[in-house]
Amino acid sequence: MSQQSTKNLFDLLSSPILSTDAICDLIEKNKETINCRNKPDNSTPLHKAVLNSTIPVIECLLRNGADVNAADAGGFTPLQLAITCVDYEKAELLLKYGADRTISNKSGCNSYMMVENLFMHKPTLPRRLYDLITKQTTSTKTQPSQQVPSQQQPSQERLQTQERSSFLKKMWQSLSKEQADYHLKIMTTDEFNELRTALQQQ
Question: Closest Cα to residue 24, out of 50, 61, 65, 52?
Fold first, then answer.
């Protein structure tokens, strides 16, 4: 793949002139560059679209074979970028196309940890993004015969108990009194019990 082809696709996604329909039409005609990498951050067109483009453009990329779990130079997936941007609609779309919430970036954080961190430090943000990431979501790419019963899903998607407890304890201790008080008011019983167990561990 030529560097010129790669550059053209990234320029295309940030074009202020082309309409969404025109961009999607060109994406479909240039599928061979859909997972190209941009230097020096090693991002893909999907990474750039999550940051700068519209939902229809992102879905066009996904529909035409964009790697939903591609990691950039920092190990960030498109889903992690959507969480960083606090963009519910983009995160929801990526999950529907099979985004993996358990992939860790080079800082050691996966999507679940990132959303926990985000809402512990900015508790006034709308809670639906937190609920979206932490609750079961069925991928559009999952075939019926491959679906895992819902009661088995948490053990596959959440951190191992010891790692999660350590993370919760560390994050809780980093909160201000005001943030901690706010979280105690909005926590569900299960969330409170999980936090209490984590804080009691040595």
Answer: 61
What does the alpha-carbon distance between residue 42 and residue 40 come to, in Å, rounded to a whole number? 6
Beta bridge partners of 43: 38
> Same domain, yes or no, for 180 and 127?
no
Q: Is the pLDDT assigned to residue 146 strictly greater than 70?
A: no
Determine the Cα angle at 91 with ends 78 and 73, to 5°.
15
Whether residue 153 is contained in a domain is answered as no
In this prediction the pTM is 0.69
- Residue 131 in contact with residue 188, Cβ under 8 Å? no
Backbone angles phi, psi at 180, to 5 degrees: -65, -45
Upper half-sphere CA count for residue 84 (Cβ side, 13 Å) = 12
Contact between residue 13 and residue 49 where contact means Cβ atoms under 8 Å apart = yes
Number of Cβ atoms within 10 Å of the Cβ of 108: 10
